[in-house]
Amino acid sequence: MNSETLVESFGHIADAPGGIDKLRGIVLDLAVNGRLVCQDPSDEPASELLSRVCKEREGNERRRRARRHQPAISEEAGGVSWPYPAPAGWAWSTLGALFGMQAGKNVPSGTIREAGSYPCYGGNGIRGYVDSFNRDGSHPIIGRQGALCGNVKIAHGRFFATEHAVVVDVFAGTSVTWAGLALRALNLNQYATATAQPGLSVERISEVPIPVPPLAEQLRIVERVTDLTALCDQLERQQAARVEARSTLTASTLKRVVEAEPVNDLRAAVRGFANHTGLYL
């Protein structure tokens, strides 16, 4: 799907209240379900990617002597029931199998400032800045505490992740940007605990299934989503400009009504105001 077909198929949604956000949601949903770009039979299948993910994680775990991770299971795994058949070349996995996920560390609130050396990520993005970092690189970050838990940001470079943020590691060349898109589309907030302070358990979301496209298709998806997101931004600016222009015109014609003195001038001003605002007199 390109810009023209998006506007042709869903453009009528854009003018509705909240329509632009709905349009962005449609793009995201199409992207993560294999319906935004065409599958290419020449792409290496995602099952090969999952095999490399498993091998890379096994090597990392042996070096770290850490707890054992889940194998990067694919759609062919016996005894596993997936939500629906994956598109051609795709494979099913789970978040815990495909990604590494670990919550950050506690940081005293008094050390977080408005400006500093390194961004500090909490449950809803950047909380402020601190003088130290505990992660380095490009990583999706899942907020795990509060009403907005499950929101997904992407951090680059050196940063500090608090205990309210889950840092996601990708393996075997998996696109970080695609990973962020896929995580957003999963609406992880639905897995939050139903308590006064909602929270996400890494153990629980590790079991969430995720459809995985081939690496080459991941890059095509990211490129297409970037293009269509730019289109949505443009439509949003145009919509805001129309609202601004209408507001200015309405204020101008209303001013003519208020300042009109002769009866004929007043009638003309009222008719002009009605025409611009769509009123029937």
Return the string of H and E elements: HHHEHEEEEEEEEHHEHH
Overall geometry: globular
Mean pLDDT: 85
Distance between the ends: 45 Å
Report low-confidence residues grouped into runs of 5 or more: none
Give the strand order of the largest sheet, numbering strands 1, 2, ... along the chain.
Answer: 2-9-6-7
Helicity, as a percent range: 40-55%
Q: Radius of gyration from the CA trace?
A: 25 Å
DSSP strand (E) fraction? Answer: 15-25%
The number of distinct β-strands equals 10
Structural class by secondary-structure content: alpha+beta
Largest sheet entry = 4 strands, antiparallel
Number of helices: 8
What secondary-structure arrangement, pairings included, does this model have?
Blueprint: H1 3-14, H2 19-32, H3 46-64, E1 91-94, H4 95-98, E2 100-103, E3 118-122, E4 125-130, E5 135-136, E6 139-143, E7 152-155, E8 158-161, E9 165-169, H5 176-185, H6 202-205, E10 209-212, H7 215-259, H8 263-277
Parallel strand pairs: 3-8
Antiparallel strand pairs: 1-10, 2-9, 3-4, 5-8, 6-7, 6-9
Helix pairs in contact: 1-2, 2-5, 2-7, 7-8
